[in-house]
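Proteins fold reproducibly. Take a tokenised chain:

. . .
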Amino acid sequence: MTVKNNILIRIAGIYILLLLVGIGIVFKIVFIQVVDGHELREKAKKITYRDILVEANRGDILAADGRVLATSVPYFDLRMDLLAAGLTDSVFKANIDSLAICLSQFFGDRSWYSYRSELTNARKYAKNRRYYPIAPRKVNYLELQEISKFPLLRLGENKGGFIAEQVNKRMLPHNSMAARTLGIVNLNGGVVGIEKALDPVLRGRNGLRVHARIPGNTWVEVNSMNKVEPEDGVDILTTLDVQLQDVAEAALRKHLEGHGAGHGCAIVMEVATGDIKAIANLRRNEDGTYEEVYNYAVGESTEPGSTIKTATLIALLEEGDINLNDTVNTGKGKLQLYDHVISDSKEDGHGKITVKEVFEVSSNVGVIKLVQKVFKGKEKDFVKKLYELKLNEPTGIIIPGEIKPQIRFPGDKGWSGLSMPMMSIGYEIRLTPLQILTFYNAIANNGRMVKPRLVKAYLKHGQVVESFPPQVIQSSICSRSTLKKVHEVLEGVVESGTAINLKNPRYKIAGKTGTAQIAKGRKGYKSGGRVSYQASFVGYFPAEDPKYSCIVVVNSPSNSVYYGNVVAGPIFKEISDKVFATSPEWFSDIKGDKLKDLPQAKTGQLSKLEYVMDELDIPFDGNGKRTDWVTVQRDSTKIVTNPIRLAKSKVPNVVGMGLRDAIYQLESLGLRVVAKGRGTVRSQSANPGEPVIKGSTVYLEMSRGES
């Protein structure tokens, strides 16, 4: 082979090799573009760009007057980027001791040496865990402002590695008030109550930001077509009244503790609108304390007992030839029905009484005899009447968890010859407290049944964006004549019947007591030889012009006291008393320009007395002499004052003063005061005019003893 041919063969081999390499490169390019292209492009995008979710602000839940009931408060997780571009070893070592001391002093959970050791080790192994938590808990905004001034952290994110990540925490400014009704929020949104029911409008819509990596491993926000502004959630204006809610919860808690009850609830509703002004639910813990952990008012369905007798009365008046003055012989309070004995609560029974009295004294025997008389053989008509009263339908309240009523129809599974008689007195039927109250509210509202309303409007920046007016379920639940008789009976329950203990001279209450045995499933009503009871009272006030309706249900009261009038009734009355006392529109104006009787006034400061007399426009005679302290007398036409002259070294006469003024007088002279009782000072241990011995004790006896 010649040299020339040898050279040509070598050159051809090189060209062929280069051609194969070129073909391989082209093939790889095509493969990457077509097969791996999408995955690699996404990977490159993630390395170069990243999407940051911007959480929208969750809307607030407000009381009817605008006060905040639930809101989101920003808290912050604190971390250090231990591989931040500007965080050099020299910067870290120069500041770590000072930072550790500040963190230890601020949180007080461990020594500064522990903080330094932990952060130093974390820096050493930062490749395994780059973003390291530096705080034992989340901090609020004010705490963040202080911590951001600490050594090293004040250098910022790049040089100091400081990262504060905002996390919104749901807060209830009024602690546990109406907590179960307002609801709970977790990472996924609302769990129960209003928070769950209206989660989509409360949560708003999250936004999106695009960040790009720049030299130095730092991320900065960039403009992008993918950028989305967050849209904050709307605020929810509820019907709840903070004052009434507080009254209802306090009264419920007080009486549940007094009776050692298992749990209870109270609901206050505005008659005309169906607005729920208060809804309290409390359950007894093992340690004897009570807290709101379940919404019994909406989610617990039980046999209501005698509160259902009002529906039975309407059915009797509408379908039967029954008058309130008709008589019923209840005998000795016992009635045999098949193998079952129906009893009245009164020993030896009520004898022969009127229909009105049957319901006022809640005679089981009397009610069943009347129902048998009118509906025997027409059981379907009786149940249909209950259906016409909407007692078989849920109220449709906005919050989730409402239990559907259970009212059997003849022919349904479980129906027997006992069903109608037992249903007429509140057994073999299950309702929630809210469903019962909705029925009674219709009675108070002249027969007009309205849907319970908990949410009035959606607000955006204080402006209404959507409102929810009251909804009528039924324009009239019965005839006017029947309604008038029912009003008369419900007033009679309090005036002379089972709830006479609620009668008071200031305003009238109308309502019905209820006492029911609690069924325990297959065990019946008795378990372990013991019967548990449910006590309730439902009604409205003032009876002559109802403004509010209210129901109180107490489950498993102890101490052998379980009747509705003595367990639930006092809770109702405490709520209604406080509502009445704080509603000035229910008090008539004083006629004429003068008070009929001039009020009593205590010995005290002249300036305060003059202010009160002027505000009340009461005739006042200062007796022409100006002194800081005066005694008070009254005659038939005016209040008269007489000056008190005080000596700085003599014990003053504080008899007739209020306790606050008496303490001021005595302590200003260096004397100590011990008072017993309330009211005005009746006697003092140190005689007026005696020399003052500073540091000595003066004992005061007040006009009313300790209670």
About this structure: The chain has a mean pLDDT of 87. The CA atoms of residues 319 and 445 lie 22 Å apart.
